[in-house]
Write a structure and sequence with these properties.
Radius of gyration: 22 Å
Helix content: 25-40%
Shape: globular
Number of strands: 18
CATH class of one domain: Alpha Beta
Largest sheet: 6 strands, mixed
CATH architecture of one domain: 3-Layer(aba) Sandwich
Bound molecules: iron/sulfur cluster
Number of helices: 13
CATH superfamily of one domain: NADH-ubiquinone oxidoreductase 51kDa subunit
Strand content: 15-25%
Distance between the termini: 59 Å
Length: 446
Amino acid sequence: MGLTMRKLAGGARVPHRKWTSEAAIVKMGVPARVIIPMVQHIGAPCEPIVKKGDTVLVGQILGDTGQYVSAPIHSSVSGTVANVGQMLYPGGGRVTSVEIATDGLQRPHESVRPQTYADKKDFLGLVRASGLVGLGGAGFPGHVKLNPPPGASIDCLIVNGAECEPYITSDYRFILENARSIVSGIKLLQSVLGIPKTYVGIEDNKPAAIKLMEEMTADDRNIEIVTLRSLYPQGAEKMLIYSCTGRRVPPGKLPADVGAVVMNVNSVSLIAEFMETGMPLVKKIVTVSGNAVKKPMNLEVVIGTPLRDVFAFCGGFTTTPEKILMGGPMMGIAQFSLDVPVIKNTNAALAFDVKDAKPAPETGCIRCGKCVDNCPMQLLPLFINSAAVKGDAERLKRFHVMDCIECGTCVYNCPAKRRIVQSARLGKDILRNLAAAEKKGGRANA
Ligand code: SF4
Ligand code: SF4
């Protein structure tokens, strides 16, 4: 057993509120309609390759792109394409999506069959074909993560079993109910990609998951289960790498630059399952919770299921919710419609009443320094806040706003409740727009 008490620089002791820890995963079944957006990952959006009226089957490709940094998107159901067009999307606004009227039969596509590969290149091609993207939140394509850039090599796989956001227990339940498949995925990645060591990081508030994974890997000295402190944001990529290995990823660098690749427990399991059965990424485990939900649960949901159906399956609301979140309360995205669908990186759907949703009023910064003490990226959040409010691009660069992981730890600890995460997002937009304008200007002058 590995036990790390490596202390994160910063972080927050957020309340856990893991009400669904003991709630076994329930299969929700197929809704009448699903909406499958063509944007579910970082990178190039997919182009739909089906049209209205087409019959589709489970596992069939609905959209793809020739771009490397992208991943195909598959049908999670069998049925008929009802519409292809602009539809609401959990990231905000509307994106091209495929709406399918389901037939309830869940007939699989002919491509869903056991996969074979000759070498590492073939294997990575199959990882892309599985539609895998980072399932812990960011949505980075899996085949890109596993293929380090020239000059970098991976000597350790870090499997993320930390689930540090309050309320969310989907990964915890997944470990308890799918440990065998997680271990198969780890062994497969180790052997095909030649990765000598794997660390599985799980926080110390999940002793049953730690015990089970230790038992399942007891015969393999190359897999180490690391017990992590229960501290937010322990599951953030750079924090996890440091907690498991002691390696620090420098600002602006990637995990591959320190020889590491981080994958969620669901991701390694999906790779094993895809090679065995050929079924791509078409379903997600979602924690449905919050004080406005009648029956908080962990659900297995087909991708594309509208939030309306998800909450209805959990008995609906105890009151009109004041706030609906896709994701946890620290990093989740507020939703203004229940028509948005569950997508590949959805791990929670939360609903809160006015008591739990109302933000504390923002007051003036009192220069207490708590945000600085607690920022896990060792930034100066108060200065990012003021630079963004003033639109000062030079200072935003100087204070490394692009390194902010938008974890919200600074806001959680701030007595003035400064809107620092929103400022950081604004600051990033300012710098991105500036860079785009400079590039355009450079091209015009060339
Ligand atoms: S924690 Fe809030 S009040 Fe204190 S210095 Fe930071 S922004 Fe200002
Ligand atoms: S949101 Fe950004 S600035 Fe605030 S604590 Fe997290 S990394 Fe630091």
